Amino acid sequence: MLRNCEKCNRIFAHPTRRLCSDCYQKVQEAFILVKDYLAANPKASVAEVAKATETNVETIYEFIKAGRLNIIPRDVQLTCEICGVSIESGRICPKCRAALKQGQVSQTEKPFSEAKRDKTRIRYLDQIRKRR
Questions:
Q1: Which residue, among 90, 89, 109, 88, has the nearest Cα to 99 in the 3D structure?
Q2: pLDDT in tens, 64-73
Q3: Which residues have a Cβ under 8 Å from the Cβ of 38 and sit 6 or more positions away?
Q4: pTM to 2 decimals?
């Protein structure tokens, strides 16, 4: 499958990856640097890890959300994407994960990020209709 690399926008062919081989290699090298630094400095903050390894903070958070790091920086604050409760790693809390496995989460529930975004959105059509 042909696609564009998410980092450099170069065209490449791979059935599952979203990064070209060069960018994928760079991400893997950054992961090894972050993992090794955290192994040597387990109480480091995200900013310290980013500065020491010269890795972008967003990339470090991607590693944490993907569950790739065994040791997590001390100041990481993640929330469940479904219910919004504080979690240590990943994207979904154990309670919501169990509900998803059992099929108990309804299709009408919006993820936390979407629900939060809806509250801040300005709805011009609703305001116009109310005036009529």
A1: 109
A2: 888 888 888 8
A3: 44, 49, 69, 71, 72, 73
A4: 0.66
